Amino acid sequence: MGNTRKLLLIAIGEGLVFAYVIERLFAESRGLSVLEMQSLLTIYAVISAVLEIPCGALADRWKKKYVLAAGLFICYFEFVFSLFAYDFLGFSLAYLAAATGGSLKSGVAESILYMTLKEHGREPEFVKWQGRFQFTGGAVMGVCSLMGGYLASEYGLEITYWLSLAGLPLCAGAALLLEEPSSADSEVEKQLPVWKQVKSGIRSILKAKQLLQIVLISAIVYAVLQNELYEMSMLVYPEIGIPVLYFGVISFGIIGVSAVSNLASDWYAGTGLGLRTAFAAGAVCIFLFGFLQEWYAVFFAAAAIGFLELTSPIMAGLLQEQASDEYRVTAASVESLCANAMSIAIGTGFGAAAGAFGIQTAFQLLAVAAGGLVLARLQTK
């Protein structure tokens, strides 16, 4: 299967980002305030929410590899615009490119992988392959984060953005070389206008209760992981006695835990323990991270990320199994839309709790949201 090698190359290229580790410092050095940075994140979430489903419908009607390549190419301009940005407007263009490109490519690679495996009668291997791709991308990004921190300290922040320009053109080229998988569904659907494809896709998802549950649970997991555990956990480090010097090492370790969890997800799916076990363990670890006042609390943050990342490829596999071919990327786009909406809701509540009670108490309350995932009734096989 040539597509798996090309998708692996895309995962490597997307991980070749040296700038993310100093992204906030770079924006600050160009004159942005914390409030402006928060506004940029809101702009990103709103644009993504608006574009996700139409872009997913476009991928379901058009050739998926072209939509994926277009998304990767547009993401390239996030770094181009950032290099020449010296005010809020300049960085807004960078976030516009990131949101547009991200919406175009959202769920497309997973759809191509699943349909490729389906052509060869190997759908049960999806979780294994998806875990491998996420492991590879995470490992590459972890190494690049370490290198980015060093290069930024030695040669300035800007060098990391120049180096980050290399990966995405490689990804876009690999995407164009993908073999477009055939669809088992009628070509009549391809003739629908995009807005009708969107309407029809949403209607089919709302009717499929199991698929709708998968979409909502994935959105909560995304919001807890990406917006809070990855982004906000570092605010706890100074309160538990961890100096800034070790932030880079901790970040590398957490990325390593995440990558190993993605790789182990296929094994976990076969243990019969179920998703609820991982959700419960993750919720307990989040609570302990917010409760403990010692430096070793950081290990519970890493463990929480590990448990929740363990479920990520499994949830992606469940979504692909439940979605029909003509709405496969549309379903993934609905999931991303819900994830952005959930991120705003949980992030707003988290921020309010942190302001009123402190950041550690906010993480204890976040554990309650994560604990709600235990109510999910989903099977890993």
TrEMBL record:
Assigned GO CC terms: plasma membrane
CDD domains to which the protein is assigned, alphabetical: MFS
Key words of the record: Membrane, Transmembrane, Transmembrane helix
Tree of life domain: Bacteria
Subcellular location: Cell membrane
InterPro entries, per the entry: MFS, MFS_DHA3_Transporter, MFS_trans_sf
Lipid bilayer topology: Multi-pass membrane protein
Keyword field contains ATP-binding: no
GO molecular function: transmembrane transporter activity
Entry's transmembrane regions: 7-27, 39-59, 66-86, 135-153, 159-178, 206-225, 240-261, 273-292, 298-319, 357-376
Listed PANTHER family: PERMEASE, MAJOR FACILITATOR SUPERFAMILY-RELATED (PTHR23530:SF1), TRANSPORT PROTEIN-RELATED (PTHR23530)
UniProt-recorded name of the protein: MFS transporter
Organism: Metabacillus mangrovi
